[in-house]
Amino acid sequence: MINELKQLRLRYCLISTMLVCLCFGCKQDPLVPKPKGYFKLDFPDRGNYEQFQMAECDFVFNHPTYVIVEKDTLFFNEKPDDPCWLNVKYPMLNGVVHMSYKSLQQNELNQLTEDYHRMKNKHVIKADFIDDAVIRDGSKNLFGLVSQVGGDVASAHQFYITDSTNHFVRGSLYFRTPPNADSLKPAVLFVREDLVNMLESWQWK
Prior knowledge:
Elements: H1 2-25, E1 49-52, E2 59-64, E3 68-71, E4 86-90, E5 95-103, H2 109-120, E6 127-137, E7 142-151, E8 157-162, E9 167-175, H3 181-200, E10 203-204
Antiparallel strand pairs: 1-2, 2-10, 3-4, 4-5, 5-9, 6-7, 7-8, 8-9
């Protein structure tokens, strides 16, 4: 009987020792939340610009050579209202600036600016903030607004520009990815500088 108890104790000690070794021998990561990580974006070098000109368009502007400017042939699967609707594409960022042109009719400017604010304010539900900067250059007949929309919104930058009598252009920046303000911030800041340069170089024909 005594021998049997000794054997049971010995087995218990051996099993306990093995369990302790297993617990301390397996190195596992601590169960703590890890910070979110995002892919590093490789931005192209700035410096090379060219002027956009198209016979159908009543304006010109400068843009970096790493973007692709092309006519928008379909808008929600329908033909655009004007042949000068454009897509300024950023292939390396999977982004695009949609630009729509409107030839102004009598007393139409107020309606178009109201439509701009109405569409911009659709983002209010998810926006952290909306900052508007006025464009006013009487020497070039350039007037408009640039809107920065913060938060997890579909379009972080929007603008309109007009000569107040004949022409009206509206633009919106989109990325073909789920809207996440943190992950998109570097790309948004990069494109913002291009938009500023584009609008500063804008001229009506």
